[in-house]
């Protein structure tokens, strides 16, 4: 592995560890519990490894479909192993699709009102 890749990997691991630590701290405060450093490190390492597996699976799904871009359908495929994650991803996907449709309608409405405005001037 090159120095840049190794450095990037270490920075990503540090970011995951930091985020897990913050989440554990918040959860601990909410439930009056404490997480040891070893537990936080174990959760961070497990999270990092699972993300690596997800990334490799996503690349494989896109490559299998002869695409160079990962799509939401690939993400849904990865999430299928966990019912809760799958439901969450499906709901988020539907939310995003609805937001995009609403945005297109809004932009289409603006264009029509501008065209009508220009026609009324003529």
TrEMBL record:
<feature type="compositionally biased region" description="Basic residues">
    <location>
        <begin position="103"/>
        <end position="113"/>
    </location>
</feature>
<dbReference type="GO" id="GO:0046982">
    <property type="term" value="F:protein heterodimerization activity"/>
</dbReference>
<keyword id="KW-0227">DNA damage</keyword>
<keyword id="KW-0234">DNA repair</keyword>
<dbReference type="GO" id="GO:0003682">
    <property type="term" value="F:chromatin binding"/>
</dbReference>
<dbReference type="GO" id="GO:0071821">
    <property type="term" value="C:FANCM-MHF complex"/>
</dbReference>
<feature type="region of interest" description="Disordered">
    <location>
        <begin position="96"/>
        <end position="122"/>
    </location>
</feature>
<dbReference type="GO" id="GO:0000712">
    <property type="term" value="P:resolution of meiotic recombination intermediates"/>
</dbReference>
<dbReference type="InterPro" id="IPR009072">
    <property type="entry name" value="Histone-fold"/>
</dbReference>
<protein>
    <recommendedName>
        <fullName>Centromere protein S</fullName>
    </recommendedName>
</protein>
<dbReference type="InterPro" id="IPR029003">
    <property type="entry name" value="CENP-S/Mhf1"/>
</dbReference>
<dbReference type="GO" id="GO:0031297">
    <property type="term" value="P:replication fork processing"/>
</dbReference>
<dbReference type="GO" id="GO:0003677">
    <property type="term" value="F:DNA binding"/>
</dbReference>
<dbReference type="GO" id="GO:0006281">
    <property type="term" value="P:DNA repair"/>
</dbReference>
<dbReference type="Pfam" id="PF15630">
    <property type="entry name" value="CENP-S"/>
</dbReference>
<keyword id="KW-0238">DNA-binding</keyword>
<comment type="similarity">
    <text>Belongs to the TAF9 family. CENP-S/MHF1 subfamily.</text>
</comment>
């Amino acid at each position: 592995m090159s120095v840049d890749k190794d450095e990037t990997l270490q920075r990503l691991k540090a970011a995951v560890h930091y985020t897990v630590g913050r989440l554990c701290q918040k959860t601990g405060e909410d439930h009056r519990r404490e997480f040891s450093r070893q537990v936080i490190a174990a959760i961070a390492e497990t999270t990092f490894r699972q993300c690596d597996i997800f990334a490799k699976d996503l690349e494989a799904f896109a490559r299998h479909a002869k695409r160079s871009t990962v799509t939401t359908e690939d993400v849904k495929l990865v999430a299928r192993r966990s019912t809760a994650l799958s439901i969450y991803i499906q709901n988020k996907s539907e939310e995003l699709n609805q937001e995009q449709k609403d945005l297109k309608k809004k932009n289409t409405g603006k264009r029509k009102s501008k065209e009508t405005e220009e026609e009324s001037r003529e």
